Amino acid sequence: MPIRQRYRQKSKYKEALQTVKLGFQVIDKEIYDLPMDKKIPENPKYKHVRSTIDTGASVTKYIEKMEELKRNYNFRKDEIFKRMKVSTFVQLLVQIADLDTVNEDVSKAGDTDLQFDRPDTADQEVANIQKNGAGDSAREASEGETSRSRLEQVVNGLGEIDLETPKPSNKSLPMMGNLCPYLLLDVRERDAYDECHIITAQSYPTAMLARSVNYETKEMLAFKNQQGKIIVLYDDDERLCHRAATTLVQRGYDNLFMLSGGLKVAYKMFPEGLITGTVPQAVLDEVAQPPKSAKSKAQSTARVPATQDSFTPELIDKLCGYLDTSVTDRSTGSRLSTSASSKSGRASSISSASSISTLGRKPFK
């Protein structure tokens, strides 16, 4: 057989073999590439939406948690200071506000007992009524005014439940005044502090630490190593605060804490009630939740002056709402069992505090 003919036969055989291979690949692709196996393209509009079904612990959740820790926190091996979570600091604020409310209620109750002291026996009360006829008529007049006001309230659609329900007060809480157990210091520059800061924080730029003398404020000296008092430092994202906390600990501050995550994590966990002023754009970009509408986008970019210098009952109630969602751990177990255990664990404290708390908030441990 000629060489050319053999070569032609081999080339035809190779072409036939390649055709058979391609046919098998097409068949395999049609069999195994099912429609359900195709990857659904991800829509960036709904990228932040998470599943509401808690399937328990998994490697994916653990990896996401570790990535979040690396993204939000800057842990180092040579840290000589203590850390405090934002949720722990907010729990401290809630406890102080509840204590202020209880002290105010006790003082009011004491004043009413002194002002409206009634006699021990009915005979003494009858004798007082006979002596003071004018007081009796004044009492009847006041009762008449009360009945007329009740009638007007019923006409206007107000009932006894609406009248007995305590209205939230917007007045500032004293936060224990001079007995406040914490001192919050903002170590950023003064301009950044004036634009946005955590409520009740004081400005203490890191440039103060460059001084050899007079680098401490009178508040820092009052809180330094005092029993039952702590000093908390924070910044935007732990870049400045790490060096400031290390320097102060080296200079003898043993009761010093750094707020983990800084302003970024604080705004992420408590977007309302904790921060006053306009949040920096860098923090807003890292929090990364797309606005739902053009109205919410306009509100996020609007500048708000940092004029709130103290907490109010309304702000504390907002913090309590966000605290309920941040304290619960959804990494393991089901959400139903976790919420049930948290409710049962706080049942005794809630029942004991319900008689003295007028705001109806749940105490936190």
TrEMBL record:
Annotated stretches, region: Disordered: 130-150, 326-365
Taxon lineage: Eukaryota, Metazoa, Spiralia, Lophotrochozoa, Mollusca
PANTHER family xref list: CENTROSOMAL PROTEIN OF 41 KDA (PTHR44390:SF1)
Compositionally biased region (Low complexity): 330-365
Biased composition (Basic and acidic residues): 137-150
Family: Belongs to the CEP41 family.
Organism the protein comes from: Biomphalaria glabrata
Domain Rhodanese intervals: 178-275
Name of the protein in its database record: Centrosomal protein of 41 kDa-like isoform X2
Record-linked SUPFAM superfamilies: Rhodanese/Cell cycle control phosphatase
Chief site of localization: cytoplasm
GO cellular component: centrosome; ciliary basal body
Subcellular localization, as worded in the UniProt entry: Cytoplasm, Cytoskeleton, Cilium basal body; Cytoplasm, Cytoskeleton, Microtubule organizing center, Centrosome
Alphabetized Pfam families for the sequence: Rhodanese (PF00581)
Keywords: Cell projection, Cilium, Cilium biogenesis/degradation, Cytoplasm, Cytoskeleton, Protein transport, Transport
Domain of life according to the entry: Eukaryota
